[in-house]
């Protein structure tokens, strides 16, 4: 039995004792994946997160949950959430307990575009720090409808984990993905398929679901996600109709999304459809399609993000950023275009064999502002760092300031002239730099990705742009990129898969 597993067992025993006295039931080290197989073999696969495993299953489930037996060799009671959650439901952290969803699990019913005229039923789902919720198949996903809310607030030491049954059972590897649906949040903020003059109407249907999104409330509040991992998610319902790790559809600026990790999604890590939601401290590892995808007019901001892309055998045209504005069939002058504000992101692209893969792709009139960011790809990749894909996008004058690029090809060949013109119009930009990014000192643990996301000398030499002038939610930094140096550890503890002692 290895020393790390012995430590987990010791912590587990202490946690169970504490739970009996009303204390914390945390079992594993922060962000780890030991779900308590109870087999005692110390296989090191990281099969759990601290819900009282390696001990005795709870005798029953909390009120409002279905008792569907035990798992992990009888060490965890499986308590299933109802498929329809109306009113308030709390998922409590309990010793010897793990939670699951089955099928379409909806929080509330659709409340429509107007809160004052809502005919839906509100649901409020609260998930306590340290809880693990798993799903068993591609048709299993969590949906928060318009007018309802989710409060999933972990901590740096007790993140909330949404994952797959296979992960709980220890049957996942670094290449596993697409084992359940994901999380979908629908709100009442504007999007491209809304009529925003009275009476406000919206016809947008969330990809991969039968839920609707959008409305006229820029500051709509769908709740809070903080210190949350979403593992092994994403599922193709049909061609072009997929579930992502996290889908934010018409989500307003009153919603909090920060310290969220997507790990090994079979589609996008995060996809945003319209809305005004802001994101902060985001980690996306191993997405099989795009890491961060936007459609139908997102007008929010995102600061501090780490992206490490999956290896080259993944879906064509997968990008770190895939930013689209609205249906191209709408004339540009009438288009509700996306206006993303981006600061302090570090994106490590894949070793792509073709130019169809791009680290940062912008199309259909996306008016982006990107500052203080690093775009790079591994040696030998044919992926361009930047792609301004069409004349519509060039014409709205996207802005790049203090952006450092280090790719074998600076611009996607098909659109190199257009992309170069836009990029060179900014200030303190580096088109063809030499990456000095480094990996965490604890070791690279994702074999199919490069985890070099910590600034080195060349990145540190770039003069940063004043981020607060781009978006009111941004803070100013004295560095570009997501991680200033090895002492900058905001991404540690609550994530998994980035260091040797925090496996997924």
Throw out a few tags for this protein.
15-stranded mixed beta sheet; single chain; 5 helices; disordered N terminus; eleven-stranded parallel beta sheet; mainly beta; 31% strand; 8% helix; globular; 504 residues
Describe the structure.
It is a single chain. This protein has helices spanning 3-20, 165-168, 391-395, 416-424, 457-460, and strands at 66-71, 76-80, 84-85, 87-91, 97-100, 104-107, 123-127, 132-135, 141-144, 149-153, 160-164, 182-186, 194-195, 201-202, 204-205, 212-213, 223-231, 235-238, 241-243, 246-249, 256-263, 270-273, 278-285, 292-295, 301-308, 319-323, 341-349, 358-362, 369-377, 384-388, 399-406, 409-411. The strands form five sheets. It has a 15-stranded mixed β-sheet that branches. The protein has an eleven-stranded parallel β-sheet with strand order 3-6-9-12-20-22-24-26-28-30-32. It has 504 residues and is mainly β. Residues 1-31 and 37-50 have low confidence and may be disordered. It is built from five helices and 32 strands. β18 (235-238) and β19 form a beta hairpin.
In short:
The chain is mainly beta and about 500 residues long. Helices cover about 10% and strands about 30% of the residues.
């Amino acid at each position: 039995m290895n020393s790390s597993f012995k430590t987990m067992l010791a912590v587990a025993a202490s946690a169970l004792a504490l739970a009996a006295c009303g204390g914390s039931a945390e079992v594993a080290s922060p962000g780890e994946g030991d779900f308590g197989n109870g087999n005692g073999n110390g296989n090191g696969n990281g099969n759990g997160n601290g819900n009282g495993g390696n001990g005795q299953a709870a005798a029953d489930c909390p009120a409002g949950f279905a008792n569907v037996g035990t798992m992990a060799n009888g060490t965890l009671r499986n308590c299933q959430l109802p498929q329809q959650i109306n009113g308030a439901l709390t998922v409590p952290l309990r010793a010897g307990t793990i939670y699951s969803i089955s099928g379409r699990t909806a929080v509330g019913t659709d409340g429509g575009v107007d809160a004052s005229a809502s005919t839906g039923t509100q649901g409020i789902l609260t998930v306590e720090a340290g809880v693990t919720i798993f799903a068993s198949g591609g048709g299993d996903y969590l949906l928060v409808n318009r007018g309802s809310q989710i409060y999933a607030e972990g901590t740096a030491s007790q993140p909330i984990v949404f994952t797959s049954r296979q992960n709980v059972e220890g049957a996942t590897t670094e290449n596993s993905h697409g084992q359940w649906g994901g999380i979908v949040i629908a709100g009442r903020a504007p999007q491209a398929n809304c009529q925003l003059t009275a009476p406000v109407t919206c016809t947008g249907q969330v990809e991969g679901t039968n839920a609707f999104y959008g409305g006229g409330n820029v500051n709509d509040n769908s709740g809070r996600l903080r210190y949350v991992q979403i593992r092994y998610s994403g599922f193709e319902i049909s061609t072009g109709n997929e579930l992502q790790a996290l889908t934010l559809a018409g989500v307003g600026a009153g919603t909090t999304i920060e310290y969220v990790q997507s790990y090994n999604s079979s589609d996008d890590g995060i996809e945003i459809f319209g809305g005004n939601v802001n994101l902060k401290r985001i980690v996306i590892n191993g997405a099989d399609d795009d890491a961060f995808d936007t459609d139908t007019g997102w007008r929010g901001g995102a600061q501090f993000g780490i992206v490490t892309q999956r290896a080259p055998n993944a879906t064509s045209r997968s990008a770190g950023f895939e930013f689209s504005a609205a249906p191209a069939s709408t004339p540009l002058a009438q288009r509700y275009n996306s206006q993303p504000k981006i600061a302090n992101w570090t994106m490590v692209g894949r070793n792509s064999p073709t130019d169809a893969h791009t680290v940062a792709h912008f199309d259909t009139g996306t008016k982006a502002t990107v500052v203080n960011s690093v775009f790079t790809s591994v040696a030998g990749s044919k992926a361009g760092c930047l792609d301004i894909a069409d004349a519509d996008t060039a014409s709205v004058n996207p802005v790049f300031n203090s952006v450092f690029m280090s790719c074998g090809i600076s611009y996607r060949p098909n659109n190199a002239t257009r992309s170069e013109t836009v990029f060179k119009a900014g200030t303190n930009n580096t088109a063809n730099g030499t990456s000095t990014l480094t990996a965490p000192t604890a070791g690279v643990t994702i074999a199919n990705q490069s985890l070099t996301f910590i600034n080195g000398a060349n990145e540190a030499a770039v003069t940063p742009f004043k981020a607060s002038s781009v978006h009111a939610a941004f803070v100013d930094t004295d560095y570009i990129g997501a991680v200033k140096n090895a002492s900058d550890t905001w991404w540690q503890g609550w994530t998994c898969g980035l260091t040797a002692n925090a496996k997924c």
